[in-house]
Fold this sequence. Notes:
The chain is of the alpha+beta class. Helix content is 53%, strand content 18%. Strands 1, 5, 6, 7, 8, 9, 10, 11, 13 and 14 form a ten-stranded mixed beta sheet that branches.
Amino acid sequence: xxxxxxxxxxxxxRKGKAAFVLAGxxxxxxxxxxxxxxxxxMTNDINHKLEKYGANxxxxxxxxxxxxxxxxxxxxGVSFEMEEIRQKDLSRVGTIxxxxxxxxxxxxxxxxxxxxxQKVLMAGVDFKxxxxxxxxWKLQQxxxxxxxxxxxxxEAARVxxxxxxxxxxxxxxDLVVSGILQPTGSQDDQLAFxxxxxxxxxxxxxxxxxxxxxxxxxxxxxxxxxVKQLSDALPGAKVMAIQQVVKSRMETLSQFKKFSYxxxxxxxxxxxxxxxxxxxxxVRERTDEIGIFRAIGFRKRHVMKIIFTEAVIVSxxxxxxxxxxxxxxxxxxxxxxxxxxxxxxxxxxxxxGGAVVTxxxxxxVSSAYPAxxxxxxxxxxxxxxx
Length: 386
C-alpha cells in the first residue's frame, strides 16, 4: 500500500473530521469567491453606468486669453471671440487607440439669441448623444425638438414667458417651442436648446462647433492617456479632463475592491484556523497509528507526506466546491439585492483557479504544524500506549 492510498483510507475512515475540514474550507472559499465576484460584478456595473453618466472630458478651442470670471460671475464684461473647432476634424477621434472607451461625444454650438427684450444663450446639441451626456434631462412638457424647433430650460421659459407651442424668431429663423425641461439645478435651466444643424444655421457657423463634451471614463487605461490621445488627434483644440469627477469615480471603485480583499483575508484566516485545529486533533487521535508507521520503518518525511496528501485532497475538493457555491451565491445575491443589474456573472477562469490555489495554500499551510508534530512523535512512546 502506497502513501497516497493510506491518506485516502484515513480520510474515508475519519469521515467526520474530513467533512469538518472540508466544510470549513468550503465556507471560507465560497464566501471569498462570492464577495469578490459580487464586488467585481457591481464594480463593472457601476463603472459601466458611470461611463455613461455625463461628460468627463471637454474639448474646447484654444485661446490666448485668460478667463475673466469666477464662480459663474463675469468680472470683465468683455467677450473675446474664440476660434471654433471644425466639425469634420472630430472624425479623427475615432482613430485614437482607446476610441472604444468613448461612450458618447456631443458637439455643441453656442450663441447669444435675442428673444424680445431678453437675450438667452442658445446651444445647438446632438440630442442622441445628449441622452447619454445629460441623462438627468426630463421634459416636464412637450417633446424633444426636431428641425426648426427648440426646448427651453425651466428658468429660461419662466423669464421669457414662453410655453410649449410658442413661436419666436431668432436671426430671421422661425422656431417653435417643442418642450420645456424640468429644473435641473444647473446652468441648463437658463439655456435654450435646439438641434445642432439648426443652431449652426442660425449663428452662421456651418461646419463649426464651439465645444465638445465627451463621456469616456475607461477602467482599462488612465484618463490621462485618453486626454493625450485626444489632444494629439485634435492639435487645434484644448482637451481637459474633469479631474474631480474622474478621481471620485476611481476612488469609489478602489474602495469597493479594498473592502472585498480585507473581508476575504479575515475569512481565510478563520478558515485556516479551523483546518489547523481539526488537523491537530486528528494527529493526536492517530498517535498509535503514526507510532506503528514509524516502528515499521516509515521515515519522518513519509508521515508528513501522508498528512499533506490528506490536506491536498480535502483542500482541492473544497476549492472546486467553494467556487461553484460562491459563483451561484453571487448570481442569487445580484438577483435579490441589485434590481438594476442584469444578473449576468461571467465565468472567470482566473477566479476559479485562484479559488483552488487559495484553498490548497490554506490547507497546506494550516497542516504544516500538525504534520511536523506527527513526524516528531516518538515511536516507542506511541507503541507503549497500545
